[in-house]
Inverse folding.
């Protein structure tokens, strides 16, 4: 079981940037598989979660903890907060991502001709010009990318193969909802593109919806049908949820952080940072599970 709960959801945010950056960093590498394996490995459906020491109702926090009157008076946001709080310490592949961050640089040597830190920084800068997200270099991001390129090539090939199947549908739905298309990578972080993925706290599907949250976004769940596992319907629900977070926070980086830690924690971090609303400026004020 997980020994430390720090850096939990930060891995989700960092890993989203990892998958945004990988196509740049893997230029000239082996071509990805064009079709997925017939059956996902059991390891891809394993979920590591931390023991939840206590449950907090962020919606009932002191109103002064939020800068946004619209947030603290938004019953929809409060309902989402309660439904998703159980997922605060739940993530896919936490242990492997944590090991990637904790590993010593010399434990994952790469050929010098692959790319240097300066090359990595320059490619991130180029990527930053093409996305509404604020892509900034940090050592944890570089460490995870190096680990994936060195030790996770089979998994990357499987994910890139699956992406040919799922990403066109994600992009169509997100375009219809005016979402950044980079949000498609969030499904890799949440479920490893396994549509029936189920966490030990009950979240299901590509986008890991909890039961109550799924109902809020009109996903039918009963003894015969679980639309959280329906790729199209769950993607539409995820788009609506992400748009709702963006309407509250007015920033896609912050919406992504709120997807993991709840809009209340993000609003508190904005207040504690002196009103800054850039994720990279407020991340030190976020819970350690979310900060990148």
């Amino acid at each position: 079981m997980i020994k430390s709960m720090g850096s939990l959801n930060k891995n989700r945010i960092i890993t989203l940037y990892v998958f945004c950056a990988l196509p740049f960093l893997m230029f000239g590498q082996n071509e990805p598989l064009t079709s997925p394996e017939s059956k996902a490995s059991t390891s891809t459906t394993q979920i590591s979660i931390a023991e939840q020491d206590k449950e907090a109702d962020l919606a009932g926090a002191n109103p002064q903890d939020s800068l946004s009157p619209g947030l603290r008076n938004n019953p929809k946001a409060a309902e989402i907060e309660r439904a998703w709080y159980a997922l605060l310490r739940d993530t896919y592949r936490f242990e492997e991502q944590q090991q990637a961050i904790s590993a010593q640089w010399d434990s994952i040597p790469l050929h010098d001709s692959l790319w240097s830190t300066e090359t990595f920084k320059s490619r991130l800068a180029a990527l930053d010009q093409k996305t509404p997200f604020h892509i900034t270099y940090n050592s944890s991001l570089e460490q995870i990318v190096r680990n994936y390129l060195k030790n996770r090539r089979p998994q990357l090939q499987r994910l890139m193969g699956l992406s040919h199947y799922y990403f066109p549908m994600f992009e169509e739905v997100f375009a219809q909802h005016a979402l950044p298309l980079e949000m498609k990578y969030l499904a890799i972080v949440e479920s490893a593109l396994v549509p029936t993925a189920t966490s030990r706290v009950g979240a299901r599907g590509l986008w890991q919806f909890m039961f109550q949250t799924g109902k809020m976004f009109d996903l039918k769940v009963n003894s015969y049908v679980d639309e959280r596992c329906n790729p199209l319907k769950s993607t539409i629900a995820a788009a609506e949820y992400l748009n709702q977070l963006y309407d509250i926070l007015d920033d896609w980086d912050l919406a992504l952080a709120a997807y993991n830690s709840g809009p209340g924690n993000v609003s508190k971090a904005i207040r504690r940072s002196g009103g800054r609303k850039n994720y990279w400026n407020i991340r030190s004020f976020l819970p350690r599970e979310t900060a990148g």
Notes: The chain has one domain: 8-32+66-285.
